[in-house]
Amino acid sequence: PGDAIIGYITQGRGVSIHRADCMNAKILPAENGRRVAVTWDDMQAEPIHVSKLFVQAHDRERLRSDLLQVIDDAGALVKETQTRTNKRNIFEGTFTLQIKGKEHLSNLVKGLERVKGVMKVDRR
Question: Could you tell me which residues are beta bridge partners of residue 74?
Fold first, then answer.
């Protein structure tokens, strides 16, 4: 956000967005009517960040559901998850999350640490 951008109507793939100083944008023909003016959405109140969290817990029924509920209640968006339970019945999960900033992340970590059975929550 903040960079000068242009839009280009592609054939069958919608509008492609490029930074105005992008080499590809400079070679796109302007005269064919497919170049369009675009702007950043200034309505977004907070920047969005992607963060990975590692959670280790004693596995139990509904653990995954409880973890995802905390994430959802915190207003974070799950982009990717990888989970497994080892032979000692220890759950290990990595969650890639879209968050709003450091305070949001800190509150989310505290919420996950309160889930029954959680032993550790770390950033990755």
Answer: none
